[in-house]
Each structure stands twice: as structure tokens, then as C-alpha cells.
């Protein structure tokens, strides 16, 4: 099981790779604020990722959960979905998927080791669910669809992907 914030769900949905979460984690818990941001707001804009996440909730492998926000997280200036995702992760003692830098800093401050969209794609490469070229294509699609990626993180992701590719040989 894993807890997810909005960004990972949105971008894996845009890449049509949301099913990787089901395969790798079986169950994905999301707080209500993430559901509101991804599904409710996304459907108003006819985003395909909103429809995919809603379908996964209906199927039962994405579960919307209630949680109380930890007061100490308010000082980090992160949005409601991030606050709830980190709080839910701690309550469930489960890992968390977060992509935004400030949210990752907040998660680390409370003892979590956040992962994100690139982690899922690299895991797919490692598990042979994605080829090296497929990984590179996914990385490019992420950027084209608005995923913000620091140049150093981009280079590190390609480096890790090459290492995984070399280990396969």
C-alpha cells in the first residue's frame, strides 16, 4: 500500500500509466483533498486523468480516506492535498508519493521518505514494464504535459535508467 498526492495520479494518468500503481502497490490511499483536486476539479475541465482516477476509486484499488492534518505541517506552506497526504501516510504508516519540493521537505521533516512519479517510472523500467526507450518517451511526455522537472533531477533520472538498462544485459 502507498499514499499518493495529486501530482503523481494526474501525470501517470496523462501518460496512461496509472495502472502501474495498482500493479506495484495493490492499494493506493488518497485523502479527500486529493480526490477533490484530481477528480472533482479535473472532471470540470474534462481531464482524462480525472476519469481514470475516478474509475480506479470505483474499482476499489484507490481508496479515499479521512485524515486529520498534523498541526506542525502548517508551517511549511504546502497545499491542503499535500498536508493531508503526508498526515495520512503517517497515520497509515505507509510510504507517500509526492513530487513538489516543499511537500517533500515537509515529509522528510516528519520522518518520511517521499517518492514520486519518477520513482514509479523507474520501478516500471526495473520490473520490465517499461523499456528504456519507453522510459525516455514517458519522461519527455511528462515535460510536454507540464510536469516541472529540475535539470539536475532530469539528468539523474536518465542516469538511473541507464544503470537499470545495463543491469538487464
First-to-last CA distance: 31 Å
pLDDT under 50 segments (min length 5)? none
Q: Kindly estimate the percentage of residues that lie in beta strands according to DSSP.
A: 5-15%
Kindly report the spatial arrangement of strands forming the biggest sheet.
Answer: 3-2-1-4
CATH architecture of the largest domain: 3-Layer(aba) Sandwich
CA-atom Rg in angstroms: 16 Å
Number of domains: 2
Decide which structural class fits the backbone.
Answer: alpha/beta
Share of helix, binned: 55-70%
What would CATH call the class of the largest domain?
Alpha Beta
Tell me about the largest β-sheet: 4 strands, parallel
In words, what does this structure look like?
- 62% of the residues lie in helices and 8% in strands.
- By secondary structure, the chain is an alpha/beta fold.
- The protein has two domains: 2-116, 3-Layer(aba) Sandwich (Rossmann fold), CATH 3.40.50.1010; 118-168, no CATH class.
- The protein has a four-stranded parallel β-sheet with strand order 3-2-1-4.
- Helix 1 (6-14) runs parallel beside helix 3, helix 3 packs across helix 4 and helix 7 runs parallel beside helix 9.
- The model has no long low-confidence stretch (mean pLDDT 96).
Amino acid at each position: 500500500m502507498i499514499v499518493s498526492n495529486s501530482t503523481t495520479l494526474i501525470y501517470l494518468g496523462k501518460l496512461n500509466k496509472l495502472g502501474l500503481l495498482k500493479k506495484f502497490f495493490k492499494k493506493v490511499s488518497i485523502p479527500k483533498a486529493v480526490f477533490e483536486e484530481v477528480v472533482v476539479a479535473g472532471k470540470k475541465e474534462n481531464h482524462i486523468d480525472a476519469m481514470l482516477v475516478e474509475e480506479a476509486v470505483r474499482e476499489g484499488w484507490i481508496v479515499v480516506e479521512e485524515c486529520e492534518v498534523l498541526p506542525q505541517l502548517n508551517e511549511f506552506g504546502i497545499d491542503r492535498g499535500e498536508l493531508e497526504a503526508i498526515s495520512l501516510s503517517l497515520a497509515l504508516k505507509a510510504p507517500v508519493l509526492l513530487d513538489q519540493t516543499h511537500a517533500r521537505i515537509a515529509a522528510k521533516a516528519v520522518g518520511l521518505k517521499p517518492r514520486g512519479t519518477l520513482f514509479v517510472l523507474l520501478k516500471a523500467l526495473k520490473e520490465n514494464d517499461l523499456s528504456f526507450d519507453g522510459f525516455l518517451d514517458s519522461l519527455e511526455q511528462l515535460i510536454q504535459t507540464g510536469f516541472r522537472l529540475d535539470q539536475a533531477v532530469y539528468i539523474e533520472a536518465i542516469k538511473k535508467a541507464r544503470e537499470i538498462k545495463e543491469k538487464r544485459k
